[in-house]
Write a structure and sequence with these properties.
The complex is a heterodimer of chains A (260) and B (826). Chain A is 42% helix and 22% strand. In chain A, the strands form 2 sheets. A 7-stranded mixed sheet of chain A has the order 5-4-3-6-7-8-9. A two-stranded antiparallel sheet of chain A has the order 1-2. In chain A, helix 7 links the parallel strand 6 and strand 7. In chain A, helix 3 crosses helix 5. The longest helix of chain A has 58 residues. Chain A starts with a helix and ends in a 13-residue tail after the last strand. The chains are: A alpha/beta (260), B alpha/beta (826). Chains A and B meet through helix 1, strand 8 and strand 9 of A and strand 13 of B. Strand 9 of chain A pairs parallel with strand 13 of chain B.
């Protein structure tokens, strides 16, 4: 009897193993497939986002002065996988046109605002860019697609390290990150063609203006983490004179309209 | 017979002939103190407006209790003593627990416009907080039902207790940290339970001893809890939380008062560099600073001053420095001095005499003592005099004239910081306020008000219209000759003079602005080409708007403008309310482009609070009605229900309308938001309690109608008198010392509050006679009405002003009297 049971168990065990083997093959096929599916989903979501940004720009034309964003900027936005820069739990919302928390009380900016800011910088492929406030690293990645070199500073240790890892994983060779105080910019690499200041401050750090090249542009979003009130564009002309434009990202005209 | 439950029941039936007065009073006291402290706590861990929503909706626990009691009345009544004790005890327990749980909910206020999930989290917080109020309301409601013959006295105990609750809360906030104050509230509740055990189990020493010992142990455990247990978990998006993530930052001091939790932070590695609106051309930056946070946000700074005036050069690179370039200033007055930046600015510009007014005594003490050396003894300097007063109160009995009155980025801490019935009021920037400031300028003196710039322009323009009205009210025929407006990237400064701006001043303005890359937005004679040069907007909105507001088309412009820029007045002191309903659809359509920044959050939160309260109240009120229908209660009762509903709804709404409107009126008279709220609240509740007590004799003689008629007539009479006579009376009495003004206030409130305390117990006592089973339902209606009333009063005041709110209340009292006639008659 025991030998009968033993034989039965052996058969069952073998059967189970076979089933497990088949399941394993199936899963190992499914999982890369599902990863591929996820990638495709992300790509589709990204394309949809780009379209919606284009639409927003069209509607806001009066305020920002252009009907559409630079195609290179839109290409960069299409390429950079925003979901990689966002904590796991928020990935499902990575391609919604809204800001998202990234921990430590910081956010990754709304894609529409990132696109607008990058476009306002009028970057060239030979440019040297400075970013104060690395945050998620997303803006740095977008810039890296468009310029020669990006230097980015972040004040919060953990964020800086995390962003550095993601940027490295994404294969960017032209981004240098640093942890520390961004008020004095990056003197050893100055001057810069473009500067982005996403770290909140109650004034524009004059040392940063000094590190802007003649002909250079600086963009600063003003407002709270989840609500950008205005974009400030600072332009230094060839003579070194400064002028600023205060740009509203929304089309709210005319201000004395009764009904539109 | 030996069943212990039966013994307890028998004993309680035999011995609880009297209601537990003292317990009810102490319970009410702790409940109101809890409400105020919760407002403080949520203002610290979240933001003030959401704190208001959370607490307002949590108070629906009172309404929910009515429903609960209506459905379980008979079962609970037969076990009254036990149920009462349990509910009071549970209030003590949950008052601490529910807050601690509530603060663990990861609610991010700013994200609410992007993510509906946040709304659900917000709901979960206030649902959690309804629990303690639910237990309080159960205890009191059940007592009202059980001892319906003594309704007047129970209601009186409730009000008298609540009247002292406000003062208890203020005292607690001044003496202990907000997180710890909850332990005291819980202890008060435990005390209420002990008192109840004495009052309800009078002849049962063993029961009393057991309860007393257990509860005393509970109190001891409370105070032995580690500090970390009651530490406040601030939102990670508050300024303080974000600052503390920076390397090397450290909290060096913390202090608490009813005006806010003050936290001082040092940041030796990465300096604060607090310099709002610093010029793009500035070569100087601030020296090292300490950050002062109030309720975890609204950062200002104490700047290090070693005596070397050159280090303060950055203060000349702000828009607020303009007045010092227009002429020599001998005596400058800084309103809202905070950490002393404007005092330093005045010192830098060699002003000989500086007066600094700051409402928050704790901040003054910090700068004067703990950080005296760091600040360069700025507040103990020979040339500087510091006054711990509210800005407008400072001017009473003050005949000084100043060369400059500065208000820089000041937002008033009104009763909003004291936590009750107030949300958006600001008395610093009303037409009357500006007139008062102008009155205290010397002949060519300047009133300079600097604010953060919002785009599209809102508050800058509102201030502009307010200034125009203030000048016109002073009899100045050409206000356009008395105004200057300049702006930088982030700040604007408006200067108002009693005399016309001179040509030499205009030259100085141009020089000042050109050197600092600030834009001139208006000066008399300015031309179009001068506007919008450095900080360019798509259109020179500030300039064109200023011209429109000064021109003949002003009213049309204000009407058509997409934000509310009507001047604020003392009767409608809602400076921060820029919202217009007609643009709401347009703003919603702009959500994808960040249109949410255009919304007036404060006002919309009020609206959202009202809508939620309204829907929840309907549910709370209707549920027992379905139950009544099932039980086939007669149709007579249906008619009674409708009339009783109207009566108690009207009472619930009007009581708080009057209370809220008069708190605001008395804030202006008493000049200090904390005194005003504490005194007025306490006076209203205590005298209403006395009025309720007095109704006992009317109830005993069955004179319900007479009582309601008398009280309502007196309320109407006194109310109307006050509508017309209070303002002139205040004007005459304004210069008296505070202590006299407090006594006068109490005398003014007493008669009105006394009569206001009468209709409710009269109605309830009558109901107890003719239809006691609907008492719990009516208790619930009244609870819901109180919640709706507070929010509705705020909404109406914003739209129509306080006088409207008071008149509405009087109309509601008259309606209550009318609806009462049939069913109150014996």
């Amino acid at each position: 009897m025991w030998s009968l049971i033993y034989r039965r168990v052996r058969v069952l065990r073998c059967a189970n193993l076979k089933v497990l083997f088949v399941i394993g093959i199936f899963l190992s096929g499914i999982m890369p497939l599902s990863a591929l599916q996820a990638d495709t989903d992300y790509t589709k979501a990204r394309e949809k986002l780009i379209k919606s940004i284009g639409q927003s720009v069209l509607e806001t034309a009066y305020f920002i002065g252009i009907k559409e964003l630079d195609s290179r900027v839109m290409q960069a936005m299409s390429k950079v996988p925003r979901h990689e820069y966002v904590p796991g739990i928020f990935r499902v919302s990575a391609y919604k046109n809204r800001p998202l928390p990234i921990g430590h009380g910081q956010t990754i900016s709304q894609p529409y605002i990132v696109a607008l800011m990058t476009d306002l910088l009028s970057v060239k492929s030979t440019d040297k860019a400075l970013e104060i406030g690395t945050g998620s690293g997303y803006q740095a990645a977008i810039l890296a697609e468009l310029v020669d070199q990006v230097f980015t500073i972040e004040i919060i240790d953990e964020l800086a390290k995390r962003a550095g890892k993601v940027l490295q994983k994404q294969g960017y060779k032209n981004i240098k990150t640093r942890i520390g105080d961004g008020y004095y910019g990056w003197p050893s690499q100055a001057p810069f063609d473009v500067i982005v200041v996403t770290a909140a401050a109650d004034h524009v750090p004059p040392p940063l203006i000094r590190q802007l090249k003649p002909g250079g542009r600086m963009v600063i979003p003003v407002g709270s983490r989840f609500m950008v009130q205005q974009l400030v564009l600072i332009v230094k002309d060839a003579k070194g004179e400064i002028s600023t434009r205060q740009i509203l990202p929304v089309r709210f005209v005319p201000l004395t309209g009764v009904h539109e | 017979m030996n069943d212990p439950r039966k013994i307890i029941t028998m004993n309680t039936v035999a011995h609880n002939e009297q209601a537990p007065w003292y317990s009810i009073a102490v319970l009410s006291m702790s409940a109101l103190a809890y409400e105020i402290i919760l407002m403080r706590l949520f203002s610290i861990i979240q933001w003030h407006h959401f704190a208001y929503m959370i607490i307002s909706l949590a108070l629906l626990g009172y309404g929910a209790s009515g429903t609960f009691l209506a459905l379980t009345r008979n079962y609970l009544l037969s076990r009254y003593s036990f149920v009462y004790l349990i509910n009071v005890f549970l209030f003590g327990l949950t008052s601490l627990l529910c807050f601690l749980l509530g603060q663990q909910v990861q609610f991010n206020a700013e994200e609410i416009l992007w993510d509906f999930d946040q709304a659900l989290r917000l709901m979960s917080i206030y649902i959690l907080l309804t629990v303690p109020f639910f237990f309080v309301a159960n205890a009191i409601g059940l007592s009202l039902i059980k001892f319906h013959k003594d309704m007047s006295r129970i209601y009186a105990a409730d009000l008298l207790g609540a009247g002292t609750g406000g003062m208890v809360a203020v005292a607690l906030l001044f003496s202990v940290f907000p997180g710890d104050s909850l332990k005291y509230i819980s202890s008060l509740a435990m005390l209420a339970t002990i008192l109840a055990s004495w009052e309800l189990f009078r002849n049962q020493a063993r029961v009393i001893v057991v309860f007393t010992s257990v509860l005393l142990v509970a109190i001891m455990i409370l105070f032995m809890l580690p500090k970390s247990f009651t530490e406040l978990a601030l939102s990670p998006y508050k300024g303080l939380s974000q600052t503390l993530r920076v390397t090397g930052t450290k909290v060096v001091s913390q202090d608490s008062s009813a005006l806010g939790l003050i936290t001082v932070v040092e940041s030796p590695v990465i300096p604060f560099r607090h310099a709002p609106g610093l010029s793009l051309n500035a070569n100087d930056e601030p020296p090292s600073q300490l950050g002062i946070f109030i309720d975890g946000d609204a950062m200002t700074a104490i700047t290090h001053y070693s005596g070397n005036i050159k280090k303060l050069a950055y203060l000349d690179q702000l828009t607020s420095a303009l007045p010092y370039h227009l002429s020599t200033i001998d005596h400058a007055l800084v309103l809202g001095a905070g950490g002393g930046a404007e005092v330093l600015q005045a010192k830098y510009h060699k002003v000989k005499q500086i007066s600094a007014v700051e409402l928050n005594k704790q901040i003054i003490e910090l700068v004067k003592s703990d950080f005296n050396k760091f600040s360069g003894s700025i507040y103990t300097d020979d040339n500087v005099t510091v006054f711990a007063e509210e800005a407008r109160g400072f001017f009473t009995d003050n005949n000084n004239l100043y060369g400059l009155i500065q208000l820089v980025l000041s937002d008033s801490f009104g009763a909003s910081s004291a936590g009750l019935h107030a949300l958006n009021e600001n008395y610093l920037y009303t037409v009357e306020a500006l007139q008062l400031y102008l009155h205290h300028l010397n002949r060519d003196g300047y009133l300079a008000i600097s604010r953060w710039i919002k785009l599209p322009p809102r508050d800058t323009l509102k201030l502009f219209t307010t200034a125009i009205d203030a000048l016109s009210n002073k009899g100045i025929e050409q206000p356009e000759r008395h105004l200057i407006l300049i702006r930088g990237l982030q700040t604007s400064t408006l200067i108002i003079k009693n005399t016309p701006i001179t040509k030499s001043e205009i030259q100085s303005i141009k020089r000042f602005c050109n050197q600092r890359l600030f834009d001139m937005a208006y000066y008399p004679g300015m031309i179009f080409g001068e506007a919008n040069r450095y900080n360019m907007l798509v259109e020179p909105v500030f300039f064109t708007a200023a011209l429109s507001l000064l021109g003949n088309e002003r009213n049309k412009f204000i009407q058509r403008y997409k934000f509310n820029i009507e001047p604020a007045t003392d009767n409608q002191p809602y400076f921060y309310n820029y919202f217009k309903w007609r643009v709401f659809p347009e703003i919603l359509s702009l959500k994808g482009e960040g249109g949410m920044s255009l919304l007036g959050m404060g006002y919309l939160i009020l609206v959202a609070t009202f809508l939620q309260a309204f829907m929840l109240s309907i549910f709370i009120i209707i549920l027992p009605l379905i139950f009544f229908k099932r039980k086939n209660i007669s149709t007579n009762i249906n008619h009674l229900k409708i009339r009783a509903f109207a009566y108690f709804l009207a009472l619930g709404l009007s009581f708080l309308f009057v209370e809220m409107a008069f708190i605001q009126k008395f804030i202006l008279f008493l000049q200090h938001p904390i005194y005003a709220v504490s005194v007025v609240l306490a006076a209203f509740l205590i005298f209403a309690g006395l009025g309720s007590l007095w109704t006992k004799r009317l109830v005993n003689s069955g004179q319900y109608i007479k009582g309601v008629k008398l009280s309502v007539l007196m309320i109407l009479f006194i109310g109307l008198c006050y509508v017309y006579l209070l303002a002139p009376a205040f004007a005459i009495l304004m210069d008296l010392p505070v202590i006299l003004k407090i006594i006068i206030s109490i005398f003014l409130i007493a008669p009105l509050a006394f009569y206001m305390g009468m209709p409710f117990p009269l109605g309830m006592s009558r109901l107890a006679e003719i239809s006691p089973e609907i008492i719990p339902w009516v208790w619930g209606v009244n609870g819901c009405a109180s919640v709706l009333s507070a929010v509705l009063a705020a909404l109406l005041a914003i739209q129509f002003g306080f006088t409207f709110v008071i008149v509405s209340a009087l109309v509601l009292y008259a309606l209550a009297a009318v609806t009462s006639v049939n069913w109150l008659r014996c």
